[in-house]
Amino acid sequence: MAGARVVKKQSLPEMIASDLRERILSGELAEGEAIRQELLAEEYDVSRMPVREALKRLNAEGLVLWENNRGGSVVKHSLPEIGEIFDLRLLIELDLFRRSIPQMGEADFATCERILTEMENSDDISQWGKLNYSYHMALYAAADRRMSNEFLERLSLHSDRYVRIHLSVMKQREPAKEEHRQLLALARNGEVAAGTALLEQHILRTKTELLEMIAAQRKTPSR
């Protein structure tokens, strides 16, 4: 008989944290929105304890501002902070891509191709956002830089909701698809300078357009 299969099990706080994280990243829970532990406990039909643990995790990730007995809210980044998130992404991703291109092999290219195909066949913005992150990480995997990847994962938690806005509100999926294909082609050809130049343009365009859009949205009073 084959050995026991390993299945990742999630605790109740992990499941609640995962769901709340997705609700924040999708915009269902908006920036600055108040969070009440007792209401979430009713919504998830659980006691307050697992909700409290879930909120502590999201607080540690920087997605929620939370203090026991004082409630909390979804983090709302200032425009300079949003700009800083993308500036830090730029520094890390350019370094990773520069290191990765000379080391990439057929397995890396095949993984990138598979993810691109999934992206091109998906109309779900949430799924597209996740695949976008997976694609970028696949481009950088051959660099084998664990600490850089960990920093980038945390940054991506903060940038993902803005990337999704960019893709949905500004209809940027088609330009992104084209640039993603170009990035892979340049990596296949070993063109480090051209690849990193295109990646820089790709990230800076997202940053610039997002900041302009969010600044305009915040100037418009909510009804």
CATH superfamily of the largest domain: GntR ligand-binding domain-like
Return the average pLDDT rounded to an integer. Answer: 87
Radius of gyration: 19 Å
Which CATH architecture of the largest domain is right? Up-down Bundle
Tell me, briefly, the overall form. Answer: globular
Helix content: over 70%
State the end-to-end distance. 64 Å
In the CATH scheme, the class of the largest domain would be Mainly Alpha
How many strands, which pairing sense, and closed or not: the largest β-sheet? Answer: 3 strands, antiparallel
Return the CATH topology of the largest domain: Four Helix Bundle (Hemerythrin (Met), subunit A)
Give the amount of beta strand, in percent: under 5%
Number of domains: 2
User: What is the number of helices?
Assistant: 9
